[in-house]
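Lab meeting, item 3. Inverse folding demo.
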């Protein structure tokens, strides 16, 4: 399909000519996401309302062209990439906070609202919206809901789905559906809101989102604990939570990560240690010192060789500097990386990291592990030279072996990035054949022509696809 085969004039008639992009230099900006997977669209439309989204999808069903919803394009698995050409539908014009209700602790937003901007506005009212993916300065709430984004605070506060009360969503056929409630409780009928959250743009396009808010914590304390042994760090993670302290963040950096950071930016990190935990507790100000002391004691009893507690914003910033330096440090050692967000039960973190060490040795690759130890979500970064075919092949083989190991450990292939294109070949490994068929039947029921975001999650050459 190409732009000349799309009904450009009809698309322009729906959204306005100024909101239709067809020039190659404009389309290029919508041809990739953070995964580096690419696919060039034939056209981009920027609707401004649910009605316009509805009309676009009705047109797509009549003219039989694919539609790819897109927020800011910050995803890590190619979920918004238009691999089949067609129309990219971006929500850049729908970026209003429609309502902020402090008394009922909820907000109603359009999908193009930037998460970081929303969090700042909420904080002005003494409230808190916890989901905090690394992309929060530029990612959109619509994209966060589509991918069910997480972040470091998930260990205490949960992920995006835990804060979505209801939706206005345009189904693939153009029908406008409203789901959920404006109340915390609501159990009438099937939970269509939860079905839509995390559906990666395959079941609908969000046009309005009702979000639950909570009171903002009064303050926080940050700690860094150094562990000579990885197993002791993992045990400390479990012991902290078992002792009734739920940190707002509980991050782990393995030895390979520490060495990469220190080589990039000398901070005096303990590169001889097998692991470092970066821990933050938040809540009532008068209880924070007590919680920090308890966490320090648990870490020491679990085998930490040292624990540092930050008492000032400057000290806190210094402790977090190492964690923030990981991404730029990794760019210094290879031109590319395969960034997997695998998740295992907390007690299996040592087994996972030891398995990764084995992969690193067998495939002659640098692999670093860091991430959200509090919920077992370990980012495993396989470093490679993207221009070296042999190294790329070894990296892809290592990733495949990693996925099998994670499932054997009782884990999941993705804790927060989703499936998209990147993980679609392995989707059935986790959900099983019946789970796969059930999900595909839902997709078919809502999108019989496979118009909306085709080629994501479901691998199209499965045998039962050919026989349907």
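The presenter then showed the designed sequence:
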């Amino acid at each position: 399909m190409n732009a000349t085969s799309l009904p450009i004039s009809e698309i322009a008639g729906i959204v306005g000519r100024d909101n239709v992009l067809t020039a190659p230099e404009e389309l290029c900006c919508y041809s990739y996401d953070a995964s580096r997977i690419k696919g060039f669209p034939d056209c981009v439309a920027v609707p401004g309302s649910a009605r316009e989204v509805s009309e676009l999808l009705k047109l797509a069903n009549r003219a039989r062209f694919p539609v790819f919803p897109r927020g800011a394009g910050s995803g890590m698995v190619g979920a918004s990439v238009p691999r089949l050409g067609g129309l990219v539908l971006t929500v850049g014009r729908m970026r209003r906070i429609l309502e902020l209700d402090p008394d009922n602790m909820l907000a109603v937003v359009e999908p193009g609202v930037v998460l970081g901007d929303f969090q700042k506005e909420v904080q002005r009212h003494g409230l808190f919206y916890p989901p905090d993916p690394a992309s929060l300065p530029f990612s959109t709430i619509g994209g966060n809901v589509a991918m069910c984004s997480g972040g470091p605070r998930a260990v205490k506060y949960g992920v995006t789905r835990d804060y979505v009360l209801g939706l206005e969503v345009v189904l693939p056929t153009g029908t406008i559906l409203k789901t959920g409630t404006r109340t915390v409780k609501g159990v009438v009928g099937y939970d269509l809101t939860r079905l839509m959250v995390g559906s990666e743009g395959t079941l609908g396009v969000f046009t309005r989102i009702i979000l639950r808010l909570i009171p903002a914590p009064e303050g926080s304390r940050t700690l860094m604990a150094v562990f000579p042994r990885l197993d002791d760090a993992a045990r400390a993670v479990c012991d902290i939570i078992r002792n009734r302290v739920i940190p707002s963040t509980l991050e782990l950096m393995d030895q390979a990560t520490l060495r990469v950071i220190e080589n990039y930016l000398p901070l005096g990190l303990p590169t001889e240690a097998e692991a470092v935990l970066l821990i933050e507790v938040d809540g009532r100000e008068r209880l924070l010192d007590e919680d920090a002391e308890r966490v320090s004691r648990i870490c020491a009893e679990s085998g930490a060789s040292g624990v540092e507690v930050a008492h000032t914003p400057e000290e806190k910033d210094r402790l977090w500097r190492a964690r923030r330096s990981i991404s730029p440090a990794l760019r210094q050692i290879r031109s590319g990386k395969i960034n997997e967000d695998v998740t295992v039960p907390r007690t299996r973190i040592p087994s996972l990291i030891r398995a990764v060490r084995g992969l690193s040795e067998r495939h002659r690759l640098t692999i670093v592990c860091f991430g959200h130890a509090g919920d077992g979500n370990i980012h495993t970064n396989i470093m490679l030279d993207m221009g070296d075919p042999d190294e790329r092949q070894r990296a892809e083989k290592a990733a495949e072996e990693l996925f099998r190991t994670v499932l054997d450990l009782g884990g999941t292939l993705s804790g927060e990035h989703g499936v998209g294109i990147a993980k679609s070949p392995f989707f059935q490994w986790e959900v099983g054949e019946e789970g796969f068929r059930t999900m595909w039947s839902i997709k078919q029921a809502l999108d019989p022509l496979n118009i909306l975001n085709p080629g994501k999650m479901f691998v199209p050459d499965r045998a039962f696809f050919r026989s349907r």
